[in-house]
Each structure stands twice: as structure tokens, then as C-alpha cells.
Amino acid sequence: MSIKIENLTHVYMKGSPFEKKALDNIDIEIKDGEFVALIGHTGSGKSTLIQHINGLLKPTSGKIIIDGVDITEKKINLNFIRKKVGLVFQYPEYQLFEETIEKDIAFGPKNLGLTNDDIVKRVKRAMNMVGLEYEEYKDKSPFELSGGQKRRVAIAGVVAMEPKVLILDEPTAGLDPKGRDDILGEIRSLHDEYNMTIILVSHSMEDVAKLADRIIVMNKGKCILDGSPAKVFNRVDVLENVGLAVPQVTYMVKKLREKGINISKDVFTVEQAKEELLKILNKS
Amino acid sequence: MIKDITIGQYIPGDSFVHKLDPRVKILISLIYIVDLFIVNSFKGYIFIVAFTVISILVSRVQFVYIYRGLKPIFILVLITAILNMFMTGGVNPPIFKWKFLVVYREGLIMAAFMTIRLIFLIVGTSLLTLTTSPIELTDGIEKLLNPMKKIGVPAHELAMMMTIALRFIPTLMDETDKIMKAQMARGADFQSGSIIQRAKSLVPILVPLFISSFRRADELAMAMEARCYRGGEGRTRMKQLKLTNRDFIASACTAVLVFISVLGRMWWH
Amino acid sequence: MEKKMILCEKVKYRYEDSDKGNSKFAIDDVSLQVEKGEFLVILGRNGSGKSTIAKHMNALLNPTSGKVYVEGLDTSDEKNTWSIRNKAGMVFQNPDNQIVATIVEEDVAFGPENLGVPPEEIRLRVNECLKRVHMYEYRKHAPHLLSGGQKQRVAIAGVLAMRPDCIIFDESTAMLDPSGRKEVLNTIKEINSKYGMTVILITHYMEEAVDADRIIVMDKGKIIMEGSPRNIFSQVAKMKDIGLDVPQITELAYELRNSGVNIRTDILTIDEMVSELCQLK
């Protein structure tokens, strides 16, 4: 199932003095099973873009074709999109509202019109996917839990709709390092074990380097870089120009190369850096 | 853009009217409204109209904004006019009669008066909110209520509540928007179905909103205490309200208007 | 004897949890001192007790046992509360939930107004403090239109306007994006270095502690490490054990050392790493 975004433009408040072009001619295709990271500053258009992909916003011009269906047409059934594309907003724990965790996670499947049996199955599966034990947590109030756990409940609520594509907007925002690692681990397994296509919006270059197969960089509504981490992180100048950074070790490698040390450019995680450095140090 | 619309649509400016002390403006508005009901002759209303039109011109607020304030109450004015027209009794023979519907001359006059009163009531208050920022209004109300603290009116607390409410309205609107979008992404539908269904569909928005508001209030209270807030006692204010010549001129004009209205009530009826 | 800015003596704190009857100690026997003019960072995971101890420092919380003194004033004595809160200002985590007024300069004035400062003096302080945090041009703006980093800077100005002796930053960067975080950190460092303000920064981000004078690491309500940044950063294994993050460079040095390379482990910056590696070649 692919997502084709063709010449997508979105202008807020067209014709008014507050008119703003949030998206400018975006043209990308996301293939089945990819793990894509979407990076860019606040205001670069990434939030606007992801809201288009799941139908919350309609473009001013351009098309979005999901699984062969143009969702920008007027008569589109929103449920069709919601079944295929799930969207987890920032600080999703602020949307929890039900009395029990089970009921909250069931909200999505219920809105899809599933039978009660199916709903229970989905809730169980979703809780499994985010690492929350069904029997232990299903009757608890979501408000009893810690921040990180609440977030997992919220993610489960979207995962329970069993979308083919899962978009997550800064899923690690506000979490401490361990909380961050846990959530990213779960997202990784959603991709690896359950074959979900993942679109991860993030600020953290280090996180993105570890997880993504492909990085799309946005700035001022345009897509300025699109490729593998190696390809994107090598364009340090472009990234710095738009106020983004590369992982620390990548900077280190750049400086080493400037000093004449022949180390590979494609280093963005600590493991890669270690391997490359050991290679060089062992040679001498 | 919704965020930029403040309550009552304040339009910044530096006209004579804008620069009046808010306490004076509020009091003049109240007196004006009472005056509308004192006047009971068309001659009297000429002065009211003149006073109002001059005020609007001096404030440099465009008439279109005043008109916008009137649009919502059009139906109300119509109903009031019709009711007064048919319900007012009279001494002289009726002007119009059809089955049980009777209209006396007094009825027509009453309808006209009530129409004028309603319209100018709205025009007057619109002018007040168009030329006075919410903060100024809050300050003005607080200062006016201050003397009533002696009889137990919590002037400072009321003003604090109004300020905080005004401060958070745009923030809460943003949050409501976010929550709506998040629930829509889970398939929530707020638009279709019966009234009951639509009301129920608001639960996933209202519950998170309430919870977050309580949390906000809690955190805000702690932050205020950390900055040594302990109620109105001993507090000073950076912004001081000072009466200027403008305020005296405006008050004098209003006094003249009231004088004429009272005389008019005695002479022209 | 010169008074310490803040002194915590064997502080224990337990949240009242009436349902359970045996609630844990959020702060378990913590003793620490803060010197005047210091830039102290308290690092720890969520639940380590770092925010709880911070709230003891301005008398928002009182110890279950033990004592906390702010410039010699006992926090458990109610009579001292307002002086303490004047001396020790606090900037909180949520940028929105500390701004009270409808325009920036009025919010900065809130603190001095509460202290009964004369109006002209308030005006002077507001202008000065907004300039210090580089937000003077925004003085007439509505807060909801500002970015997270800008809101936090307004909050900092609001605390500075009260002329505190020390400012506590309770995870003030946790909800900000990277540029906002940078803005706020730079402001914090500036008020410490330029204006000599004692600064206590509570955080779980190690990168924010690089320039600290001293770091205290907390876990499960206790202090488990204390020392200079170099000292603390080099204990990579321990930091990871308690679930804290280590900057990539420091972790790399640690990994290389574990693989037999003779390299220092207390490396803090990219430049230090580069020169270390060049020396090895």
C-alpha cells in the first residue's frame, strides 16, 4: 500500500491578510513497509503534512493517493482513510477520556463499526503491541498511570484501528531517556514485527539516525532533502542552513576528516563510530 | 485567526474615545443605557442619536463594525417591535384592526421607542468593547468595584478571574482543536446523527479538556504562589489609571445629554 | 560563617497516600548545599525525586523530616514563606501554565506587584528584565502567540523582576523543541555568568549539564553521585544503569575504552574527542 503525494500545496486563510503557505508543492511517495522520518523546525510544515495524509486537512491544490484512491476528492469516506492511516499526535495522553483503559482503546475500533468480539480482540492485540498486559491493565483508569504508560495507552488507541500506516508526531516529546528508549523500541517493533509503515516526525537526529530507513527534511513548507540517513546527514551544510543539526558523532567524523584522518563519512550512531575508529586505530 | 479575535472585538486605536479612562467609559455607558429609557419622545431621541453618531465618528471606528454587532439581534428587535405594537393599549381609536389583532397609535410609538432603545443599547455597548481592550475593561471594573469591598464584594478576585480567563481562552481554544483532531483521527464524528448522538460525541472532547483545565489551574496556582501571590492585600499595580481632561470633557457631555433628556421627559411628552 | 544559598539537611519527604498506608519516600535522606553564584545541575529520571527536592527549596513543599534553609531561613516556618519565595524564584516546566496576564509586560509585573513594589519601580524592573532575556520587543504581545522558548524567557523575566538571589529551573526545557531549549539554556547561562545569579537547573538531559559548576545525580529519592561534569560524565556505566542518557561523544569514549583503547572517559565535547583521537594516532 503506497502513499503518493502529488504537488501538494496548502495555503492557510487564503485571501486574508494572514495568508500563509504551509506546504509548497510537496511531491513524495511512501512505499509499503518503509520507516520514514520527517524532520524540520516548528513551522516547517511537517504537522500540516501529516494531517493531510490522514484526511484531517484538505489541500488547496494537489492530490494524495492512498492505496490507489484519491483521498482529496470530495466524496471520500473518512473511515476509509482512518482504517488505513493512523495518526498519533504530540502528547497523545491528553486525549484519554474513558473510565477504563480497555474502553479508551476500544474507542477507535468502535467508531469503525466493528462487532464487540472484534473490538475486544483488537484491544488485546493493541495492548500487546505496546507492551501493556491485557488482564493487568484493562480495567484500570488511564489516569492512574505514569506519563509514559499513559502515552502507550494513547498509542494503543490508534494502533487498535490496525492501520497500515502509522504516523507519530514526536512520540518522545517530554519523556526522560528511559521513557524515550522504551517508546522508540515499541515503535521499532511495530515496524519490524507487525509490518506497519511508519512515519516518524522527530526533532532528535540521534533517534532518527538509529531507526529510520529514509529521512525527509522539510523547511518552510518545502521538502529540501529526501534519502537514506547517510545521504541526508552528509549534507551538513544544508541542514545547518535551516537550523538543524546532525548527530554528534557525525560532526566528530567531519572534524577528523578535516584533520586528514581517513574515516568513513557514513557515521551517525555510536556503534558505527566505534567500529570505524577501531578499524583505524588497529591499523596503526 | 480565531485566536486574534478577542471578546467583543477590540479594535486598537488612539482616538479620543480609545484614550478615555475605562472607568469613565464604563460609567458613561451605564448612564447612557439608563438615559435611553428615560427619553420618551422623538425629539429626545434626536439628541441621543446625535450624541451616539458623534461618539462613533470621534472614535474613528468604522460603521461596519457597529453594524456587525447589530446583525445578531435583528430578530430580537423585530419580535420586540411586533410585540409592543400589538400589546400596547391606547386611549384613541385603534389605527388598525383585524380579528383579534389591534394596533393603537400608542403601540406604534412604543414599538418605535423600543426598537430605538434596543438598537442603541447594542450600539453603545459595542462602542465600549470596540474601543476598550479586555485588560482595560477588567482594570476599570476592578477599580469601580473596589469601594464595594467593604460590603464584601471580592473586587480583586473577580478581576483576577477575568484576567486569567481572558488569558487562557485562546490557549483553551487551541487545545480543544487539538483534542478534536486527535479524536477525529480515531474516527470520532461530531457532525452526523441526532442531537443526542452529537451531544454524546462531545464527551471525548469535554472530558480531556476538563481534566487538562484542572491540571492547568493547579500548576498555575503553584506558579502564582511561587511568585508570592497571596490575594489582593498589599498588591500594587504597574498600570495606574489616571483621569485626564478628556475624561472630564466626556463626562460633561454625557451630563448635558442626561440633563436634556430629563427636561425633555418633562416638556415634550 | 557565610550563609549557604540553600542547605538541605537529611530531608525526607513522603507524599500522603491515604489509600495505601505505606507510601514510599519521594526524597529519602537527602543532604545538599548550594553555594552563592553556583550553577548547579540536578540530574535524574522522572520519579527520581529531583522535582520534589526543588519544590522544597522555595517552600512549596515542606519536609516530612529534616530541614531546608534558604539563606538561613527555615522553610518549615510559615513566617518565612514569602521571604523565601522572594529569595528563591522558580521557573516551571509548562510554559503556558505560569503566565497569568494577557500581555507580556503585565505578566513580568505580576511578581513585583505581589511584593507591593511602587509602580514606577515596577516599570523599571519590567523593562530591565525583559531586556536581559532579550524579549523587550515583545513586551506588548499576547502570550499565546509566542513560541515555547519565548514563553519560558518571559517566565524567567517575571522571576528576575522579583530580584531573587537564586533561580530554580524545574525541568524548564522539557517541553521545548531543540531551538527553544537552546534559547532558554543560553539565557540561563547568561544570567549566571553575567549577573552572578545562583542557578539550580533540574533536568534529565545530560547535554544541559556540560557547563555546570557541579552536578548532583539523583535516583529513587537519593543522591547517588555528586561532582564536576567531567567527573560525572565519565561514569557512563552508572549513568546508563539508572536510565540516564549520555552524550554520544562520551558514550563513544566509554565504548572505545571498553574495547581496549587507551582513551580518557571524561570527554565532554566534540573538540576534546577529536584532539584525543588525533593524539592516539
Oligomer: heterotrimer
CATH superfamily annotation of the largest domain in chain A: P-loop containing nucleotide triphosphate hydrolases
Q: What's the overall average pLDDT of chain A, rounded?
A: 89
The spatial strand order of the largest sheet of chain B comes to 1-2
Compute the number of structural domains of chain B.
2
The largest β sheet of chain B comes out as: 2 strands, antiparallel
Order of helices and strands of chain A: EEEHEEHEHHHHEHEHEEHHHH
Strand order of the largest sheet of chain A: 6-7-8-3-9-10
Number of helices of chain B: 10
Radius of gyration of chain B: 24 Å
C-alpha end-to-end distance of chain A: 50 Å
Rough outline of chain B: globular
Q: Give the strand tally of chain A.
A: 10
* Fraction of residues in H or I helices of chain A: 40-55%
Q: How many domain modules of chain A?
A: 2
CATH class placement of the largest domain in chain A: Alpha Beta
Distance between the termini of chain B: 50 Å
The helix-and-strand class of chain B reads mainly alpha
Subunit structure (chain B): Forms a stable energy-coupling factor (ECF) transporter complex composed of 2 membrane-embedded substrate-binding proteins (S component), 2 ATP-binding proteins (A component) and 2 transmembrane proteins (T component).
Family (chain B): Belongs to the energy-coupling factor EcfT family.
Transmembrane segments (chain B): 46-67, 73-96, 108-131, 151-169, 248-268
Subcellular location (chain B): Cell membrane
Explain the overall architecture.
The complex is a heterotrimer of chains A (284), B (269) and C (281). Chain A has helices spanning 46-53, 78-84, 101-111, 116-129, 134-137, 147-159, 177-192, 205-211, 229-234, 236-241, 248-258, 270-283, and strands spanning 3-12, 20-30, 35-39, 61-66, 69-70, 85-88, 165-169, 197-202, 214-219, 222-227. By secondary structure, chain A is of the alpha/beta class. Chain A folds into 2 domains: 3-238, P-loop containing nucleotide triphosphate hydrolases (Rossmann fold, 3-Layer(aba) Sandwich); 247-284, no CATH class. Chain A has a 6-stranded mixed sheet, sandwiched between helices. Chain A has a 4-stranded antiparallel sheet with strand order 2-1-4-5, with helices on one face. In chain A, α3 (101-111) packs across α4 (116-129), α3 (101-111) packs parallel to α6 (147-159) and α4 crosses α6 (147-159). With 269 residues, chain B is mainly α. Chain B has 2 domains: 2-132 and 244-267, no CATH class; 147-226, no CATH class. Helix content of chain B is 67%, strand content 2%. Chain B has 10 helices and 2 strands, in the order ααααββαααααα. A two-stranded antiparallel sheet of chain B has the order 1-2. In chain B, a hairpin with a 2-residue loop joins β1 and β2 (101-103). The longest helix of chain B has 30 residues, at 155-184. The radius of gyration of chain B is 24 Å and the shape is globular. Residues 1-7 of chain B have low confidence and may be disordered. Chain C is an alpha/beta fold and 281 residues long. Chain C has one domain: P-loop containing nucleotide triphosphate hydrolases (Rossmann fold). In chain C, 36% of the residues lie in helices and 21% in strands. In chain C, the strands form 2 sheets. A 6-stranded mixed sheet of chain C has the order 6-7-8-3-9-10, sandwiched between helices. A 4-stranded antiparallel sheet of chain C has the order 2-1-4-5, covered by helices on one side. In chain C, a hairpin with a 2-residue loop joins β9 and β10 (222-227). In chain C, α4 (119-132) crosses α5 and α5 (148-160) packs parallel to α6. The longest helix of chain C has 16 residues, at 178-193. Chain C is globular, with a radius of gyration of 20 Å. The termini of chain C are far apart. Chains in contact: A-B, A-C, B-C. The B-C interface holds B 3, 134-135, 163-164, 166-167, 170-171, 174, 215-216, 219-220, 222-230, 234-240 and C 58, 60, 82, 85-86, 89-90, 92, 94, 96-103, 105-106, 109-119, 122-123, 126, 142-145, 158-159, 162.
